[in-house]
Specification:
Blueprint: H1 2-15, E1 30-36, E2 40-49, E3 52-62, H2 72-86, H3 88-91, E4 95-100, H4 116-125, E5 129-134, H5 141-147, H6 160-172, E6 187-189, E7 192-195, E8 205-206, H7 213-222
Pfam family, one: RT_RNaseH
Protein name: Reverse transcriptase RNase H-like domain-containing protein
Domain Reverse transcriptase RNase H-like: 25-128
């Protein structure tokens, strides 16, 4: 349609414009905007310069299984700790701001009864100089959208022909078969079953049924002609 074509053309024009990511200016205040969801953590590092807001970097990561069991406050605090440590080389030694959509984090260092996990994180952040500011989730568009973006593989959308092609490619890389490991067929001679231990060897080995193995061992070991006369003789 005309609308789709116009949208596609606008997208191409935006991609041809100067890079969206800006260069950091260490004379300006760094701002870290974080958010957490049940799936992952997301953060944006940006500055408010003369030309307006400019993004320095984006960061995302999925939650591990134990982290998915954290409370909402712990997840939001984890996002702050992770983002600050990730961009330590930008914010260490200077004052910066942290923006979150979780109001409880505005008094991170003054929790009345913090959990041991929150205490550890608060201690890790004491070396940094920053102020925590609250912004409603409805205004926290970028980091909120990143944290809720699904990263699940869409295998159901992959055509079956692509999967078949992958399997054929893997078969082409299989090394040559080791024919020595392939068992040789049994050979019957006068009612007895023989097996060849290897294709390269011509001698045959008599196959002894499992029910007769104990009797044959006793016959060859306990018979007087076997040479095993006991511990008093050799």
């Amino acid at each position: 349609t005309t609308t789709c074509q116009e949208s596609f053309q606008e997208l191409k024009e935006q991609l041809m414009k100067p890079p969206i990511l800006g260069h950091p200016n260490f004379n300006e205040t760094f701002i870290i905007q974080t958010d957490a969801s049940d799936k992952g953590l997301r953060a944006v590092l940006w500055q408010n310069g003369k030309e307006g807001e400019k993004v320095i970097a984006y960061a995302t990561r999925s939650l591990t299984f134990p982290e998915t069991r954290y409370s909402a406050t712990e997840k939001e605090c984890l996002a702050v700790v992770w983002a600050i440590e990730k961009w330590r080389h930008y914010v260490e030694g200077c004052c910066f701001e942290v923006i979150t959509d979780h109001a409880a984090l505005t008094w991170l260092f003054n929790f009345p009864k913090p959990t041991s996990r929150l205490v550890r994180w608060a201690l890790r952040l004491q070396e940094f100089q920053f102020d925590v500011k609250y912004r409603k989730g409805t205004l926290n568009h970028v980091s909120d959208a990143l944290s809720r973006a699904s990263a699940n593989p869409t295998l159901t959308d992959v055509p079956s022909c692509c999967l078949v092609t992958t399997e054929l490619t893997e078969l082409e890389t299989v090394p040559e078969l080791n024919w020595d490991r392939i068992p040789t067929p049994d050979i019957k001679v006068d009612g007895l079953v023989y097996r060849k231990p290897s294709i390269e060897l011509n001698n045959l080995k008599l196959f002894v049924p499992e029910t007769l193995r104990i009797d044959i061992m006793k016959l060859y070991h306990d018979c007087p002609l076997a040479g095993h006369l006991g511990h008093t003789k050799t």
